[in-house]
Recover the amino acids of this structure.
């Protein structure tokens, strides 16, 4: 099939970018979206034009590296990462708009690549359980209720891709933060640091310049791991509890 | 920028200075509003019980608690709470609004909403509309600065005369405001539950959503009955 | 031309020089294998806590091995500089591991023990791993689970709240801990969080989007690394008291593999060129259950976790004419559940090398399924119909739901209704930089952990033991052994040292070269061609003829690459073609060495199957008299110089060396 692409091109962080149009023929349905871009890049390389820079690594939906806004939807029309999106989701003759994540806290580095290190700093601020190597007790000494373990797992599947931020009209990172808060908060191991964790992580997210959440829910619709909006409520609740405890 | 060698981590963070604290303030004040409009709507419906009942009710509002409170005392308490709430609510709304616009200065060329309700996306403008309405409404029915139909005597008469077909535009303003109110409540009620942490599973979230629709319909519908009935001559 | 200690002249005689034999000198050989680790720890040097702050460790890689090591060293108070090419440490390739992690906990009370895990590992590796290392791996495995649980890793649990286990190929006990099909992700996030905690504590500094392009060595001692900031293009020097490479595997030399796109050999290869030996480079693991190749433009292959073989049954039609039929229309009696037929004791749970090879044979025999490519159907069925009948749809969903979803997303076929189609693909490399018991390479001060080293898995790796090795190395082994080295570190150098200047210049020249060749072919086209050669001739089955052909072809391809590659853009920006050019350049050299190693090893062992060396019924035949050694290759020099083979003899004392059978 043939498609038309409108792609954001921007040489580097300091330069202004613009949308460019490309035509691509010989796209097959079985190609992944990124393989389609690989093909475009092969053509561009041939023509002596700088290939389009985009991020990807695992290409199987787990590393969270790929990050494209496709036709106005984070990761495109499917509930999956960009790398798991296949061209069979499009039709011959379609025009596809491709943009980078847009958020002040995720500055564009080049073309479709953004800097998501803000997420790392949010984790640094408290997204962990302090357990020095060697100090751990025997694992089965601490049974965890199945329901809690399952819930912790469900939300621990967040891949840190940033689609939630990209899709949120407020540019909020609440789904990402909420997922981590809920994951660690569900587990007995996570209790001692629970109050400080939420206060610090929220403060860091605010500091990085993410917006506040007004419970719009686009984040969860865009999330390739289907992290539910529940986690934001949990996040708010945990913060309220910390407030009550005077943190 | 990238590859940060020395991380900049916030020191001495406080829960009360977070965006979530602002949200909690908004939710609490929002709850005050919900409570108020519920009661207010209930009071307004006394119109259907006739002039006497309604005027009696308006009077009773002012004498409630006497002699512990002076005449109109309860009303002033309510007014104070409402005023503080409006200030708190609007302050947080605008603070979050400005944060959000700073969080994304570069807009997408193409952006699709997938699940967001119109109500949720209209909260800010809807809130502004409500604020404007309240100002108008106070000038109209409380201070009587805006006088649409001569100088009627009792509260009941003022009300009924305001929504006569002759001044259909007054009713339209009120009805539009009720639409804004419905939308604000549709999302607001759900949002309160999210913000206060009462909907951290799928079932409670569905319940909160239902409550949003339900209260929006009941409250805005209840309010709208009064001007509509007057407009169509059911109450006169 | 070589003077071989072996009885026959090597098949690869024209391609290498034989060097001195080597041995691991660090394992305390005066005690028995089970006592070695205790003994080593007891006598290792310690570093005074007050001095640790001043000691700088360069840690390249943030996968399970690198992140866990960096976090642990940070906790101990060392100053760690951590590097990865991704935009976040959390995205290292370990994140993709699906199935699980082994540990000798014996929670199932099914007779598991350190010895049995050790035994399975050595046998699984076809008696080509170093006994002392494999024992230690089994020994520390239990602590890994404790550590991960304490960090909040959400392992699967039973209703009683205790940890659940499942079984994996090649063993008869249930010792695999898992987190649905995302075990690697959950383990890595745990290590990543521990790492980020140390970043906040100020002990670790992370450098993301930085690629190591050179190792700085002075007089046989590693002093630091040269990296490129992949955003600004700046070439930076980082010097320290020890360098750790935890840079993962090089399976991408095959172009198509289950590895992440960025996985590369560059860090290891640069170290190799600076003197570090490459151990057993030809040992590659081909995983039996991957989604088959679908088209020309495919960029990577996707693994379907080995855990699926617990409940899924593998079959092909008995009759060739059934191959194009809808599998549901093929009656039971016309199906060949070949693994269950050939290996009744292990059935579908035979080790990976065996399952892969049998799948290849079935397809070569004309009984493969799926679309025909070049006249052959390359696929076998992995069928869950029985499991769904037996366990119910819901139970299958709970266990494998995310894998099924992934399959559906990629193939657009519903595995709940139709059996999956799978085919082997390159997945893991057992080969890697040679290290001693302390995980130190022959370059002093250069440590190698995780998949990047060669040490624990032998010629084949059992499922769920790469994660185990990564975390064992990072949490429990390296912190001790590197401390022993750091107690008396070599003198530091500064950036004006000639070795640094030279290394930096070499990096710059190379980059400059790529950008100025201005040839006609893209980097990817070379990579694909190399991958094709490797897969054809150094893949599931290798032969003297094929390997010789591959070596010659790779040499030509390499020469052409340096003359004719086309890399656009500049050095001082984010330039992905430039990044790939450097990686492919190193893959070309590695590919050649892999083929030479494979050519030399005229036996079949584990993942290395030489057509010339098989039993009458097609099983791998080892030649212990000649090849019971680790092949540690020394860089010979630029073109025209042959690599030097150092042999480390393998002997077994805690376990008896015997033919490996799963029948
Ligand atoms: C699809 C898949 C599924 C798997 N499933 C399992 C399983 O179920 N159980 C199991 O035990 N094993 C499994 N494995 C194998 C296992 O995941 C890997 O062997 C293991 O994770 C390797 O970990 P590592 O820490 O050694 O390296 P990696 O996780 O590969 O990390 C390498 C690190 O080095 C960095 N790096 C590399 N080169 C450079 C450079 N030049 N400069 C700077 N940084 C560099 C990278 O950025 C990265 O941080 C699986 C593998 C795959 C591909
Ligand atoms: C001053 C003008 C107002 C503005 C700018 C405003 C704006 C907002 C905004 C932005 C929100 C947050 C939306 C969200 O969380 O999704 C909100 C919430 C809410 N508003 Fe208003 N509003 C105003 C007045 C009102 C009035 C008059 C009422 C009552 C009738 C009201 C009731 C609520 C309720 C119940 C909520 C939910 C609280 C929450 O989000 O947790 N608001 N408002
Ligand atoms: C159709 C809709 C409405 C009607 C018919 C109505 C009617 C009235 C009347 C008759 C009064 C005067 C009562 C008195 O002074 O005794 C009044 C007061 C008031 N109304 Fe409404 N109202 C409506 C909607 C609303 C809404 C939606 C709000 C808020 C969001 C609101 C807020 C107020 C306030 C704050 C006062 C003043 C109370 C005081 O301080 O005295 N009204 N309303
Ligand atoms: S919550 Fe979902 S969308 Fe957000 S970072 Fe995690 S996986 Fe991505
Ligand atoms: S879309 Fe944004 S407003 Fe909240 S619920 Fe999601 S973060
Ligand atoms: S590339 Fe890893 S999730 Fe898409």
């Amino acid at each position: 099939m043939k498609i038309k692409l409108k792609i954001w091109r921007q040489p580097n962080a300091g330069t202004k970018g613009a949308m460019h149009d490309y035509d691509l023929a010989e796209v097959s349905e079985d190609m992944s979206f990124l393989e389609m871009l690989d093909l475009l890049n092969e053509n561009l390389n041939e023509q002596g034009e700088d290939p389009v820079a985009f991020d990807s690594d695992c290409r199987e939906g787990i590393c969270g590296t790929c990050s494209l806004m496709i036709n106005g939807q984070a990761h495109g029309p499917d509930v999956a990462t960009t790398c798991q999106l296949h061209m069979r989701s499009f039709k011959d003759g379609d025009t596809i708009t491709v943009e980078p994540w847009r958020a002040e806290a995720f500055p564009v580095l080049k073309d479709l690549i953004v800097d998501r290190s803000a997420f790392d700093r949010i984790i640094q601020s408290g997204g962990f359980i302090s357990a020095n190597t060697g100090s751990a007790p025997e694992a089965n000494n601490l049974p965890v209720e199945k329901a809690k373990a399952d819930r912790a797992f469900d939300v621990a599947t967040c891949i840190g891709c940033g689609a939630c931020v990209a899709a949120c009209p407020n540019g909020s990172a609440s789904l990402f933060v909420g997922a981590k808060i809920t994951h660690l908060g569900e587990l007995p191991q996570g209790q001692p640091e629970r109050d400080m964790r939420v206060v610090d992580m929220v403060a860091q997210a605010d500091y990085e310049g993410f917006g506040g959440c007004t419970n719009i829910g686009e984040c969860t619709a865009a999330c390739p791991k289907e992290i539910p909006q529940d986690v934001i409520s949990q996040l708010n609740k945990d913060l309220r509890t910390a407030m009550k405890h005077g943190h | 920028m990238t590859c940060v060698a020395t991380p900049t981590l916030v020191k001495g963070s406080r829960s009360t200075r977070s965006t979530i604290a602002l949200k909690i303030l908004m939710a609490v004040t929002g709850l005050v509003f919900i409570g108020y409009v519920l009661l207010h709507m209930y009071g307004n419906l006394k119109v259907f019980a006739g002039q006497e009942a309604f005027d009696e009710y308006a009077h009773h509002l002012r004498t409630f608690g006497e002699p512990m409170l002076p005449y109109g005392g309860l009303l002033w308490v309510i007014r104070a709470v409402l005023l503080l709430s409006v200030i708190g609510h609007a302050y947080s709304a605008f603070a979050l609004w400005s944060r959000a616009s700073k969080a994304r200065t570069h807009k997408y060329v193409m952006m699709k909403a997938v699940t967001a309700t119109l109500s949720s996306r209209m909260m800010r403008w809807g809130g502004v509309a409500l604020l404007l309405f309240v100002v108008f409404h106070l000038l109209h029915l409380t201070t009587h600065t805006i006088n649409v139909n001569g100088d009627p005597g009792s509260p009941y008469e003022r009300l009924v005369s305001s929504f006569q077909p002759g001044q259909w535009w007054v009713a339209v303003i009120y009805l539009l405001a009720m639409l804004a109110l419905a939308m604000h409540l549709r999302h607001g009620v759900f949002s309160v539950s999210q913000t206060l942490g009462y909907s951290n599973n799928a079932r409670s979230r569905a319940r909160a959503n239902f409550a949003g629709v339900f209260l929006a319909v009941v409250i805005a519908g209840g309010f709208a009955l009064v001007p509509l009935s007057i407009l169509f001559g059911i109450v006169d | 031309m070589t003077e071989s200690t072996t009885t026959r002249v090597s098949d690869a005689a024209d391609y290498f020089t034989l060097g001195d034999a080597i041995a691991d000198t660090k394992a305390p050989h005066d005690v028995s294998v089970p006592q070695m680790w205790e003994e080593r720890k007891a006598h290792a040097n310690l570093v005074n806590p007050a001095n640790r702050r001043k000691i700088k460790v360069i840690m390249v890689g943030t996968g399970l091995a690198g992140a866990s090591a960096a976090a642990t060293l940070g906790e101990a108070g060392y100053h760690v500089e951590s590097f990865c090419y991704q935009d976040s440490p959390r995205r290292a390739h370990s994140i993709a591991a699906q199935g699980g992690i082994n540990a000798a906990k014996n929670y199932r009370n099914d007779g598991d023990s350190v010895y049995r895990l050790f035994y399975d590992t050595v046998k699984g590796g076809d008696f080509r791993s170093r006994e002392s290392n494999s024992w230690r791996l089994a020994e520390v495995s239990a602590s890994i689970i404790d550590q991960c649980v304490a960090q909040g890793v959400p392992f699967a649990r039973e209703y009683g709240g205790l940890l659940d286990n499942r079984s994996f190929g090649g063993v008869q006990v249930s010792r695999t801990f898992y987190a649905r099909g995302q075990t690697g992700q959950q383990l890595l996030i745990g290590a990543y969080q521990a790492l980020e905690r140390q970043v906040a504590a100020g002990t670790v500094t992370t450098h993301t989007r930085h690629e190591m392009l050179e190792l700085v060595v002075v007089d046989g001692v590693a002093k630091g690394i040269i990296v490129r900031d992949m955003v600004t293009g700046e070439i930076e020097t980082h010097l320290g008291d020890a360098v750790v490479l935890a840079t993962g595997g090089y399976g991408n030399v095959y172009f198509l593999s289950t590895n992440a796109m960025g996985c590369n050999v560059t860090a290891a290869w640069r170290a190799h060129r600076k003197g570090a030996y490459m151990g057993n480079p030809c040992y590659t693991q081909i995983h039996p259950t991957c989604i088959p190749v679908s088209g020309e433009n495919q960029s990577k292959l996707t693994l379907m976790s080995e855990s699926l073989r617990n409940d899924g049954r593998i079959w092909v039609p008995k009759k060739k004419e059934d191959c194009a039929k809808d599998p549901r229309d093929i009656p039971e009696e016309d199906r060949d559940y070949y693994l269950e037929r050939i290996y009744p004791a292990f059935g579908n749970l035979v080790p990976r090398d065996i399952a892969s090879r049998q799948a290849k044979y079935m397809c070569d025999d004309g009984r493969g399924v799926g679309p025909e490519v070049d006249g052959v159907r390359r696929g076998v069925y992995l069928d869950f119909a029985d499991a769904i009948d037996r366990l119910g749809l819901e139970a299958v969903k709970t266990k494998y739901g995310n894998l099924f979803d992934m399959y559906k997303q990629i193939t657009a076929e519903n595995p709940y209704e139709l059996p999956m189609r799978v085919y082997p693909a390159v997945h893991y490399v057992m080969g890697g930089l040679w290290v001693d018991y302390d995980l130190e390479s022959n370059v002093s001060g250069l440590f190698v952990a995780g998949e990047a080293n060669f040490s624990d898995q032998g010629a084949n790796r059992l499922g769920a033991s790469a994660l185990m090795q990564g975390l064992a190395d990072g949490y429990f082994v390296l912190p001790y052994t590197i401390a022993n080295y750091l107690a008396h570190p070599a003198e530091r150098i500064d950036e004006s040292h000639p070795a640094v200047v030279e290394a930096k210049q070499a990096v710059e020249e190379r980059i400059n070269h790529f950008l100025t060749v201005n040839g006609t072919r893209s980097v990817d086209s070379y990579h694909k061609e190399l991958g094709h050669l490797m897969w054809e001739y150094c893949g599931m089955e290798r032969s003297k003829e094929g390997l010789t052909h591959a070596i010659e072809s790779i040499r030509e391809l390499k020469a052409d690459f340096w003359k004719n590659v086309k890399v656009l853009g500049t050095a001082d920006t984010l330039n992905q073609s430039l990044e790939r050019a450097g990686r492919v350049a190193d893959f070309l050299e590695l590919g050649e060495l892999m083929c030479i190693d494979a050519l030399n090893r005229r036996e079949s062992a584990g993942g290395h199957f030489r057509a010339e060396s098989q039993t009458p019924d097609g099983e791998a035949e080892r030649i212990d008299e000649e090849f019971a050694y680790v092949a540690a290759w020394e860089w010979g020099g630029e073109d025209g110089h042959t690599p030097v083979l150092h042999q480390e003899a393998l002997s077994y004392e805690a376990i008896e060396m015997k033919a490996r059978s799963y029948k």
User: Anything to note?
Assistant: Chain C has a mean pLDDT of 94. Chain C touches chain A through 79 residues (CB under 8 Å). The two ends of chain C are 41 Å apart (CA to CA). The longest helix of chain C spans residues 576-600.
